[in-house]
Amino acid sequence: MKRQAADAIVTTLNQPSFIHLIRLFLHEQLHGADSASNLSSSSLISNLLSFKGKAKIFIYNSAAATFFAPSDISGIGGMRREHICAVPSWHKGPSRYDCIFINTDPSGIGMHGLDVACIRLFFSFMYEGIKYPCALIRWFSHVGNEPDEDTGMWLVQPDSNADGSPAMSVIHLDTVV
Fold it and tell me: What is the pTM for the complete model shown?
């Protein structure tokens, strides 16, 4: 774990919208997920919570996911643990940014309720006495509505904003499947 100011992370990750993304995240956490979509762009900006660039962020290189996988080698009734990594250098080599599933529609069945994202940063911060465990992610979209007929796997592609920049968000770790 490393502690760093939010401003420094903006520079390190070359992610100028990082603080704005944290403000959007906090707004959704405190006012509901649909609160941002109900406001006009100018109203949203004026209603975003104050989160200062000097605020301390705690950075983590990985997160452990513990889950039940009866069809896996862990056996029926067994639990599995996987580490999800987001590091700029893996064992003194190239970076490693793992992909995850995010539960975006609890009523959806299988992949129809999940989205795919690439973890760019695991971090946490305190806001008004509450600790928020988060991840900065890059969104991916499904290609089609069904798995590929040749491989049986779902195809995804990176999402981009209108200006061509990567579609990024800050999410709560509770949404990771």
Answer: 0.84
